[in-house]
Recover the amino acids of this structure.
């Protein structure tokens, strides 16, 4: 009886090599398809204030990955889900100060700095990684429509439910449904790609 | 019988290839490449551009490459399903007096249909870790049944003679190795699930940092891995060197298992020290699935050819 490695077994070497090459290419292609985030234009200049009264504009977006949404504190529609998703993102990115969340109120009359601060506290915000902004309604509408290409008619109730991903150069890189669990996973993975690039 | 045996072997090989492709879908992150099932973005053939998406689906979820990777997996799943359907029809028409072949083929058919439907549930559950584990385990059960059917077809063609002399308890050692490897696959899926949960909580940490946060399961998996390596060398050596007139199938299985477990240790260490590279993840599970198939084959070969025992 031949007790050497049976010849039949050597056939697995070319098979495994072939599978490894194909798998490597597929994985590379998949990774590329994820990291090639499109660019939807630059965020224009704007001058808003956060709930602490500090200036917040385009310059504050530079050098960081930002996730931006429009909301209002007394909203009973999609906002609670959006804000709870934002709160989850806030927790998820707690290991890095390179990612910031920005929620812009579309109801500045009701959402005074005090109201915004209370809202922040209720969502577990303890640092500057999640900022709440307000400005004149006209300026908010302008930023939403001209800056982010999102409809802003019949505010406050008809604001967009998209989360906007903005890179470290204040370029818009993606829009995600702010109420959809699966979209959140894609957003997280896209943020991970962008953070890896600036590190 | 030769035709049927060869066909059963091809079906088994195709199923192994499908398990590999399934693993590839997983690590390339294409599991939700098509967010719906059985259609892909509401179409039988995936869309090629964002304009073709149905209005109720968030366009950010569309990725051309990922959609086609997932779609290819579904096509291959269909193809394997058809292969098994033909196998079952063949078994019913020609081998209905061989219960092992008949019932094995029919069971494989039922399970492969279930596997397809469960794949749909998996997508609806957005790749919930337990559902992914069920998908993997079902695939392993199906391929094991196919190995069993192929073996029995082989035995009908070449009835085994009980002339081999193996060391005592060789078959028991192989059976233990099979159980340990099944446990290892389960532990491995648990580790993968933990990494996913950790990654969701800390998406910005590196792969090595995620791995460092995985608890005791990881250490148990590594320890059992080395134990399995030692065990395989032990009974493999017994079959290859110390037995008398061992069956050629047992020799083939023993060598195959030794090669697989050695490769598996190397792949495992790469995963551990180089930060779980996706390519290695695919091979880790796939080599394990080949190992359990070979263990089944070797066990059966030793049992069926054992005339007496020594030592």
């Amino acid at each position: 009886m031949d007790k050497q490695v049976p010849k039949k077994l050597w056939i697995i070497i070319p098979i495994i090599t072939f599978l490894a090459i194909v798998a490597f290419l597929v994985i590379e292609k998949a990774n590329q398809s994820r990291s090639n985030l499109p660019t939807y234009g630059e965020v224009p200049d704007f001058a808003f204030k956060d709930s602490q009264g500090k200036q917040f504009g385009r310059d504050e977006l530079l050098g960081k990955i930002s996730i931006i949404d429009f909301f209002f504190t007394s909203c009973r529609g999609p906002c609670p889900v959006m804000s709870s998703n934002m709160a989850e993102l806030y927790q998820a990115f707690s290991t890095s100060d390179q990612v910031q969340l920005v929620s812009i109120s579309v109801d500045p009359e009701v959402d005074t700095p005090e109201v915004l601060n209370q809202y922040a506290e209720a969502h577990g915000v303890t640092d500057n990684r999640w900022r709440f902004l307000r400005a004149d309604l006209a300026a908010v509408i302008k930023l939403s429509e001209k800056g982010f290409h999102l409809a802003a008619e019949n505010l406050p109730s008809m604001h967009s439910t998209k989360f906007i991903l903005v890179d470290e150069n204040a370029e818009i890189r993606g829009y995600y449904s702010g109420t959809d669990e699966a979209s959140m996973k894609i957003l997280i993975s896209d943020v991970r790609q962008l953070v890896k690039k600036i590190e | 019988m030769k035709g049927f045996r060869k066909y059963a072997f091809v079906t088994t090989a195709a199923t192994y290839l499908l398990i590999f492709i399934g693993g590839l879908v997983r690590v390339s992150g294409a599991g939700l490449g098509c967010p719906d099932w059985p259609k892909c973005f509401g179409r039988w053939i995936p869309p090629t551009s964002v304009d073709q998406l149905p209005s109720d689906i968030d366009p950010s979820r569309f990725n051309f490459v990922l959609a086609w990777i997932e779609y290819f997996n579904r096509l291959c799943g269909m193809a394997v399903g058809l292969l098994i359907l033909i196998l079952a029809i063949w078994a019913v028409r020609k081998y209905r007096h061989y219960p092992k072949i008949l019932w094995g083929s029919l069971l494989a058919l039922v399970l492969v249909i279930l596997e397809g439907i469960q794949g749909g549930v998996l997508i609806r559950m957005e790749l919930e870790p337990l559902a992914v584990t069920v998908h993997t385990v079902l695939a392993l059960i199906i391929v094991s049944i196919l190995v069993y059917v192929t073996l029995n077809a082989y035995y009908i063609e070449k009835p085994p003679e009980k002339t081999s002399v193996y060391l005592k308890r060789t078959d028991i050692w192989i059976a233990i190795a099979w159980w340990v490897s099944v446990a290892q696959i389960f532990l491995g899926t648990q580790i993968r699930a933990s990494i996913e949960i950790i990654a969701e909580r800390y998406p910005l940490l590196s792969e090595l940092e995620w791995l460092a946060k995985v608890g005791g399961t990881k250490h148990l998996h590594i320890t059992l891995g080395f134990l399995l390596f030692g065990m395989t060398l032990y009974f493999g050596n017994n079959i290859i060197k110390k037995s008398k007139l061992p069956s050629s199938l047992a020799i083939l299985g023993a060598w195959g298992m030794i090669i697989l477990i050695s490769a598996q240790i190397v792949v495992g260490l790469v995963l551990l020290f180089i930060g779980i590279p996706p390519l290695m993840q695919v091979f880790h599970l796939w080599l394990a699935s080949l190992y359990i198939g070979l263990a089944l084959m070797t066990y059966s070969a030793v049992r069926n050819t054992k005339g007496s025992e020594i030592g």
